[in-house]
Amino acid sequence: MRDKIEIVQGDITKVTVDAIVNAANSSLLGGGGVDGAIHRAAGPELLAECRTLGGCPTGEAKITGGYRLPAQHVIHTVGPVWHGGGRGEAEQLRSCYRNCFRLAHENGLTSIAFPAISTGVYGYPKRPACRIALEEAKAALASCPELRKIIFTAFSAEDADIYRETMQEVVA
Ligand code: AR6
Question: Ranges for the Macro domain (predicted)?
Fold first, then answer.
């Protein structure tokens, strides 16, 4: 199982996989952070397709083409804004990962790359967010044999260390 999970430090827009995940907002019409980077790299056709989707509630996900990205698809998900942990943030974040894996499965995708959803502007603490990401990756690999590769992109060396440490604890 461990050989199917990879931690990569760097820019998710450069990763060649069937789908990269975007940490979007509920408008799906772009923003800062990884969302801005993905829209810049994919080109205006991505925004045009996103306009047809009618937004996306927190915890859910929608799929589009990847346009000028090396990835064939973008799965847009909306993470929770961190309010201290008492407003269902953990379940919402878990739901983001589950819905991304569900869409990957429904679309016959075998490789997927994630950013650390909600851990930037939305303020979710990195370690617990990382644990949820890895727990859901483990569950997806157990139930989807066609899933070949799950990549977690860490934007900083510090974030990559958090993924590696958490991986020791979560994934056998
Ligand atoms: N590649 C990989 N990871 C990145 C990149 C990149 N190019 N750029 C940033 N990160 P954030 P959120 C990391 O703020 O917290 C947007 O405006 C970053 O270091 O992008 O879910 C949306 O439109 C952090 O670890 O997303 C929403 O309004 C992680 O990606 C809001 O921000 C997520 O940070 C969503 O906030």
Answer: 1-171
> What domains does the chain contain, in order, with CATH numbers?
2-171 (3.40.220.10)
- pTM recorded for the entire structure: 0.98
pLDDT in tens, 119-168: 999 999 999 999 999 999 999 999 999 999 999 999 999 999 999 999 99
Where does residue 88 rank: exposed (0-12), middle (13-18), buried (19+ CB within 10 A)?
middle
Q: List the alpha helices (DSSP H) in the chain.
A: 33-42, 44-51, 89-106, 126-143, 157-170
Question: What's the CA gap between 59 and 61, in Å, rounded?
Answer: 7
Which is nearest to 115 in space by CA: 84, 160, 81, 80? 160
**112, containing H or E segment:** strand 111-114
* pLDDT, tens digit (0-9, with 9 covering 90-100), for 21-48: 999 999 999 999 999 999 999 999 999 9
Atom of ligand 1 nearest to the CA of 32: 17
